[in-house]
Recover the amino acids of this structure.
């Protein structure tokens, strides 16, 4: 009973992983979420993966020790690329990455076997998606493009507008030329930009949001292991960041609408004081 009613821990470098929190809460309404956004070290994308691994390890330990979470979801593709395998070995509670679920879905729906991938530099160079896709189907071709400016735009609460469209057109042009039929949004910040991205790629290219897939996988896991929260009390989620000054007012306004979390607010808990 105690195990079941513990919260689910989620982490990201900033507000990106909230797109995964949204999908999880959509299908697991009774679960309580403890979210940690490492805004002090954002962005993770251009950083050395060893540093990202160090930050992520620290957050996972904090979620387990301070918040007694029952599972952890790395709601960040860069964190998954850098740390998933090591974390699984080091911690005894279940830890989910976000990459495998997205890769599996892309393979499932690509008819042309030509998959586009956008993500951070760290995720793309790590080859984590490329390897995951090929583990499902060796014949798939993957075309990847890092989109570093998107993370900054989303953190500022800029989800639409001409500047984003122009940036997205530039990032996506080569992928479109390569005749892809699915596009993996390989960074949890990108679903906020999905309306703009959809407009640019058109109807023939399907967008894949790995958050949707991970939410489904998590639900199956909780059911199978009898870990669904059965507490009758309304869940009080916690949204924690390592540096609250990095949260933009405009994000709070736009993010609340996008995520349908009217009460979204953040508290600061800087667990990195020794760095
Ligand atoms: N949202 C993160 C991801 O999914 C990382 C963004 C960043 O910090 O660069 O990769």
């Amino acid at each position: 009973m105690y195990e079941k009613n513990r919260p689910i821990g989620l982490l990201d470098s900033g507000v990106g992983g909230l797109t995964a929190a949204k999908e999880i809460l959509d299908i697991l309404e009774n679960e309580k979420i403890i979210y940690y956004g490492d805004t002090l070290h954002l962005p993770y994308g251009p950083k050395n993966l060893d540093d990202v691994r160090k930050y992520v390890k620290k957050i996972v330990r904090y979620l387990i020790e301070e918040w007694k979470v029952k599972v952890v979801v790395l709601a960040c593709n860069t964190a998954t690329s850098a740390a998933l395998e090591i974390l699984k070995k080091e911690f005894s509670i279940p830890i989910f990455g976000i990459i495998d679920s997205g890769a599996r879905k892309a393979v499932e729906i690509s008819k042309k076997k030509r998959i586009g991938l956008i993500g951070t530099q760290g995720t793309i160079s790590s080859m984590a998606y490329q390897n995951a896709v090929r583990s499902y189907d060796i014949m798939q071709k993957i075309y990847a493009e890092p989109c570093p400016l998107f993370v900054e735009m989303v953190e500022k609460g800029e989800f639409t507008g001409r500047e984003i469209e122009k940036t997205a057109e530039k990032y996506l042009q080569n992928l479109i030329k390569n005749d892809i039929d699915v596009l993996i949004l390989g960074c949890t910040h990108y679903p906020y930009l999905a309306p703009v991205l959809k407009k640019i790629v058109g109807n023939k290219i399907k967008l894949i949001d790995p958050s949707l897939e991970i939410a489904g996988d998590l639900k199956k896991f909780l059911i199978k292991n009898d870990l669904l929260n059965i507490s009758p009390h309304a869940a009080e989620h916690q949204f924690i960041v390592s540096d609250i000054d990095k949260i933009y007012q405009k994000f709070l306004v736009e993010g609340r609408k996008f995520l349908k979390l009217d009460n979204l607010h953040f508290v600061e808990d800087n667990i990195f004081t020794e760095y």
In short: The longest helix spans residues 49-67.
